[in-house]
Amino acid sequence: MIRSITKQKSFEEISGMLEQASRVFIFGCGTCTTMARTGGLPEVIRMADKLKDAKKTITGWMMLPVACDELTGEALEENRDAIMSAETLLVMTCAFGVQTIAMHLDKPVIPALDTLFIGKEKAPGLFDEICIQCGACVLAYTGGICPVAGCHKGLLNGPCGGTNKGKCEIGSDKDCVWSLIYNKLEKLGRLDLMRVYHPPKNYHVEPQPGKIIIPFDARSEEDGTKL
To answer: What pLDDT sits at residue 145?
Structure first.
């Protein structure tokens, strides 16, 4: 099972990542971000209204029951026309949901949230780290592939000199995540993002230990929405 705690990026940061896009499709998630009140139905609707005020065209939005689920690919088919007519996908899910959607669609993905802590159980007793919960998501610049969790060195600017024919110097069975990022950005026609410099990561962004208090949103009570 996945349990993710997220916080919404500032609208200024989201607007900056959407600067080159005029047509946007929005995704929310019916599980973790609904629980955290960062990507549930009320938040998706408010985000759509804000983007419309910012002169963006919203081609549509949808609430994925579980954005990181294996059935996400099938769920996306329900709105494929509206999704494909968008230039960019704004994803109000945890980082794993963003990456799951990116795996199914050859569209630029923009994370509207920062994931604070997350983990996935692949089999009983077997856990894969898919996000280090750094609290400063860079997936908008890396084709929806996390370099921090995927690179043995956690490089924010890559690849390093140890990559060899798409493999990591740590082991020939390990894909170089920056080669994967390059290939995805090339497919998206966004290799310019490889030139964006990311300063050293502040690993104190996330709370230590992982704990956060989610303030009650009085607007939900006023309009009768149950979160």
So the answer is: 92
> What is the H or E stretch that residue 127 is in?
strand 126-128
- Whether 40 has a pLDDT exceeding 90, the answer reads yes
Which domains does the chain possess? Answer: 5-140 (3.40.50.11860)
Name the 3-class secondary structure at 92: strand
SS3 194: helix
Distance CA 46, CA 60 (A): 13
Nearest to 136 by CA among 89, 185, 203: 203
Give the C-alpha distances (Å, rounded to integers) separating 57 from 98, 141, 173. 21, 22, 43
Q: Residue 3 pLDDT > 80, yes or no?
A: no
C-alpha–C-alpha distance, residues 99 and 105, integer Å: 10
pLDDT of 219 higher than 70:
no
d(CA 135, CA 139): 12
What local confidence, expressed as pLDDT, does residue 212 receive?
64
Confirm if 60 and 66 have CB atoms less than 8 A apart: no
